[in-house]
Amino acid sequence: MSGKLYLCATPIGNLEDITLRVLRVLKEVDLIAAEDTRNSIKLLNHFDIKTPMTSYHEYNKVEKAYTLIEKMQEGLNVALITDAGTPGISDPGEVLAAMCYDAGIEVTSLPGPAACITALTLSGLSTRRFAFEAFLPPDKKERKAILEELKNETRTIILYEAPHHLVGTLQELYQALGNRRMTLCRELTKKHETAFRTTIEDLIAFYKDQKPLGECVLVIEGRSRKEMEQESQESWRDISIEEHMAIYENQGIARKEAMKMVAKDRGVTKRDIYQALLLQK
């Protein structure tokens, strides 16, 4: 019988956050695939785990996946761990998981810490709906396209950023999104954990005199639907109601139906449109 892939979440800072199930599985599997063996050995030594380890990272994610799958097909059980957090979230674990499914290897995920969820719940912003973007891509064209998409994102936005890129990213976000409420979370679960409730503009000003430190998670307020509706309604104010009616009537839409559509566009009642049209005659 084939072995199994275990996606094991590890602490993002505080070692006490590891689960009893993850500890058991890391001791019981035949092999641990780690993003950085030099980093992970500290975790394994802390919990006296002697399981053999191999590297699995961004630069060998496809080639090494074939090797790991071959071992699992031979019956070995493999645990995948990332440097911190849940494998597959902003790391190459997603590639191995997908390739295992294609190869008919069973995959299971052992839940635990994830910086994005920890920051979201700590942010004080809406948690019901959120968009996780991880790190913005380095490619300028792709980065610009994603920022353009985020302009009208109504869900809470979660981004990761390294300290040396933080100010530049904040400036890009300000240009794309305007000034939004946000919470900057850094050093999550560690001794110097910080949740800085602020705005994009104020955070840019703050870092004019301060050097950003620690890995950062940016939790940004989504755009208000009401604000978007008001902007849409205002955009129609540049043309007359008769001109607005003509847009729909020229498409073959009946006048009564066109009046309903114009009323909806402008955020008024159909009666308001009827009265305005009478006055224009």
Task: Describe what you observe in this structure.
This protein has 281 residues and is of the alpha/beta class. It is 43% helix and 17% strand. The chain has 12 helices and 10 strands. It has helices at residues 20-28, 37-46, 63-73, 93-102, 115-123, 140-150, 166-177, 200-206, 225-235, 241-249, 255-266, 270-280, and strands spanning 4-8, 31-34, 53-55, 78-81, 106-110, 130-134, 156-161, 181-186, 194-199, 216-220. A 5-stranded parallel beta sheet has the order 3-2-4-1-5, sandwiched between helices. A 5-stranded mixed beta sheet has the order 6-7-10-8-9. The radius of gyration is 26 Å and the shape is elongated. It starts with a strand and ends with a helix.
Keyphrases for this structure?
5-stranded mixed β-sheet; 5-stranded parallel β-sheet; alpha/beta; 281 residues; 10 strands; 17% strand
Question: Layout of helices and strands, plus pairs?
Answer:
Layout: E1 4-8, H1 20-28, E2 31-34, H2 37-46, E3 53-55, H3 63-73, E4 78-81, H4 93-102, E5 106-110, H5 115-123, E6 130-134, H6 140-150, E7 156-161, H7 166-177, E8 181-186, E9 194-199, H8 200-206, E10 216-220, H9 225-235, H10 241-249, H11 255-266, H12 270-280
